[in-house]
Amino acid sequence: MRRHPDRVRIGSSPVVVGGDASLDISARLARRLGAPHISCKVRTFSDGESKITQSRPVPRASAAIVVQSTHPPVDSNLLRALSLVSAATRTSRRVIAVVPYMGYARQDRAFLAGELVSIREIARLFAGAGAAAMVIVDMHSTEGLGHFGIPTVNVEAAPAIAAHLARMRMKHRIIVSPDAGAKKRAEMFARELGCDTLVLSKKRNRRTGSVRITTRSAPGVAGRDVILVDDMVSTGSSIIKAAAFLQSHKCGRIHVACTHGLLIDGARSKMEMAGITSIISTNTIMGSTSAIDVSGLIAKVLVS
Question: In whole angstroms, what is the distance from residue 279 CA to residue 258 CA?
C-alpha cells in the first residue's frame, strides 16, 4: 500500500476557499491559519446544473486550500469540489484539497462481480483537477487511502470527540463498537477516556443491505451508560440494531458519537424513537448534531 504523510506543506500566503457544503469549517480553518477566507455561493438551475460564484478571485501566487465536503447530494458536492480545485489552479501556485467528509469512501473494493472501485476513480479525479495534496477527516478505511496517488493525510477526529465526551456526565461508561470494522476506533476512544470496550459482530446482506447482530452476550454492560462509536452514521440501521441488543442486556443510557453525521431518511428521529439518548457528530457535515469542531485538527496537519 502507498505510504502517505502525516503533514501537508502549504507554504506562505495561504488562502482558504470554502465551498458551499463547508462554509462553517472553512471559515474556522481560515481563522486558525490567519488566512483570508473566500466563500462561495451556488445557484442551482431547474435542470440541476450548478453555478458557483466566489466572493472574490483566488490571489495569484497564493497557496489555495479548497474545503468542500462531499456529503449528499454527493455527486453535486463532488463536482463543486473538483470545479473549485480546478479553478484555483489557474492563479494559485499550489492547491490543497481538504475534503472533511469524503463520499464514495465505502466503495473501496469490489464485493460483487462487475462492481467498480469508485473511490479509486474519485482519487484520480482530484489529482486530474490539479490538487497537489489532500486532507480527509476519518477516511472510511486505510485501504481506500491506498488509491490516492497524491500525498493524502487522514485526520483522526477521535481526540476532539473524546474531549467532548469526557465533559458529559455518564454512569460508569463503556465504549461499544457496532461491528468489527469500528474496533480500532472504539479502542482509541477507550484509551482517551480510560474505560472499557465491547465489540459487537454483525452480518450485512450485500444485496439488500439488511443488518443483523450476531453477538450473543454483552458482559459488563448492565447498568452502564453506553457510547456507540463509528466513523459515520447514515440511515442509523446498524446503530438501532446495536442499541436494541444492548437494551436487551439492561444497559443504561445510550449515546452515539460519530465523525460524520449523514443522518439520512429521518435517521435521527428513528434513533431517538429507538431509545438513544443523544447523537453527537462533528462539523465535517453541518447539521443539528454537529457539536464538535475539527478545524483545529485539520490546521495542525497544514504546515508552512
Answer: 8
Same-domain pairing of 197 and 213: yes
pLDDT recorded at residue 1: 53
**Do 40 and 90 fall within a single domain?**
yes
Give mean pLDDT, residues 148-152: 95
Strand order in the sheet with 278-282: 196-199, 174-177, 226-233, 254-261, 278-282, 290-292
CATH of the domain at 53: 3.40.50.2020
Phi-psi sector, 110: left (phi>0), alpha (psi -120 to 50), beta: beta
- Tell me: pLDDT of 209 over 80: no
Residue 115 lies in a domain: yes
Domain that holds residue 31: 8-157+293-303
Q: Please state, for a pLDDT cut of 90, what percent of the chain lies above it.
A: 79
Catalytic residue numbers read 202
Interval 246-267: pLDDT, tens: 999 999 999 999 999 999 999 9
User: Is the domain of 94 the same as that of 149?
Assistant: yes
Element housing 114 (H / E): none
